[in-house]
Amino acid sequence: MSGATTDAGPDRPGLTPPRDAVAPERHPDAPAPGEPLGAHYDHCFGCGGAQPHGLHLEATAGEGVSVTAEFTVQPAHQGAPGLAHGGVLATALDETLGSLAWLLRTIAVTGRLETDFVQPVPVGATLHLEARCTAVAGRKIYSTAVGRIGGPDGPVAVRADALFIEVKLEHFTDNGRPEEIRAAMSDPDQVKVARAFEVNP
Ligand SMILES: CCCCC/C=C\C/C=C\C/C=C\C/C=C\CCCC(=O)SCCNC(=O)CCNC(=O)[C@H](O)C(C)(C)COP(=O)(O)OP(=O)(O)OC[C@H]1O[C@@H](n2cnc3c(N)ncnc32)[C@H](O)[C@@H]1OP(=O)(O)O
């Protein structure tokens, strides 16, 4: 007997929305479709500009609760000769899925990320990513993403399903190393990002 659809189902444990889940709602103050989202933290390995070997992933708001993003694989991202490391590809998916937070205006962290590696991704290739939120149940945010190579309509190289969990700003301030937290809180641009998320009716 297969085809379980409950949250605890054997197919995708923890990744199937429960029965009381609702459709995600784009926040009225979400960035307009086509607007670049920018980095949520300059030192983020996924999107920050201050990480020399980071992914420098650039995400753009899409329609509804969706985003697109691009990431070009650098030599520093290799796992095998000339090929992207799977963990780096998972990071690209995680970062793109995480960017949906800008559309929901909800601070959330990855609870679960299930990744399919469909095709090898060479160094120099640009991964064209798309993510969308599929459902929300209380603090649980369900989403899915694909990454294509050779162009936005190219073949799928990676895909992922994720469960993000809504958290308060204190998740970071209570758990992060104090020196980075202090530096972030004294950076007006960073405070602006944090405030934008805090005011979530
Ligand atoms: C000062 C500077 C601030 C800067 C930031 C400011 C704003 C920026 C915000 C957003 C930025 C925009 C873009 C972000 C882009 C990319 C970010 C990348 C994302 C990451 O890379 S982020 C790092 C990796 N991430 C973690 O570091 C999480 C570690 N973890 C925990 O911190 C806890 O584990 C937590 C909080 C997840 C839950 O803990 P908790 O105590 O709050 O909640 P609890 O356990 O009760 O779970 C509630 C319900 O979720 C279910 N649930 C939980 N976990 C599950 C799992 N794994 N599988 C299946 N179900 C799960 C439970 O079963 C329950 O379900 P139910 O309600 O049905 O019972």
UniProtKB/TrEMBL annotation:
<feature type="domain" description="Thioesterase">
    <location>
        <begin position="82"/>
        <end position="141"/>
    </location>
</feature>
<keyword id="KW-0378">Hydrolase</keyword>
<keyword id="KW-0053">Apoptosis</keyword>
<keyword id="KW-0963">Cytoplasm</keyword>
<dbReference type="GO" id="GO:0016020">
    <property type="term" value="C:membrane"/>
</dbReference>
<comment type="similarity">
    <text>Belongs to the THEM4/THEM5 thioesterase family.</text>
</comment>
<keyword id="KW-0472">Membrane</keyword>
<dbReference type="GO" id="GO:0006631">
    <property type="term" value="P:fatty acid metabolic process"/>
</dbReference>
<dbReference type="GO" id="GO:0016787">
    <property type="term" value="F:hydrolase activity"/>
</dbReference>
<keyword id="KW-0443">Lipid metabolism</keyword>
<keyword id="KW-0809">Transit peptide</keyword>
<dbReference type="InterPro" id="IPR052365">
    <property type="entry name" value="THEM4/THEM5_acyl-CoA_thioest"/>
</dbReference>
<dbReference type="InterPro" id="IPR006683">
    <property type="entry name" value="Thioestr_dom"/>
</dbReference>
<keyword id="KW-1003">Cell membrane</keyword>
<keyword id="KW-0966">Cell projection</keyword>
<dbReference type="Pfam" id="PF03061">
    <property type="entry name" value="4HBT"/>
</dbReference>
<keyword id="KW-0276">Fatty acid metabolism</keyword>
<protein>
    <recommendedName>
        <fullName>Acyl-coenzyme A thioesterase THEM4</fullName>
        <ecNumber>3.1.2.2</ecNumber>
    </recommendedName>
</protein>
<dbReference type="GO" id="GO:0005737">
    <property type="term" value="C:cytoplasm"/>
</dbReference>
<dbReference type="InterPro" id="IPR029069">
    <property type="entry name" value="HotDog_dom_sf"/>
</dbReference>
<feature type="region of interest" description="Disordered">
    <location>
        <begin position="1"/>
        <end position="37"/>
    </location>
</feature>
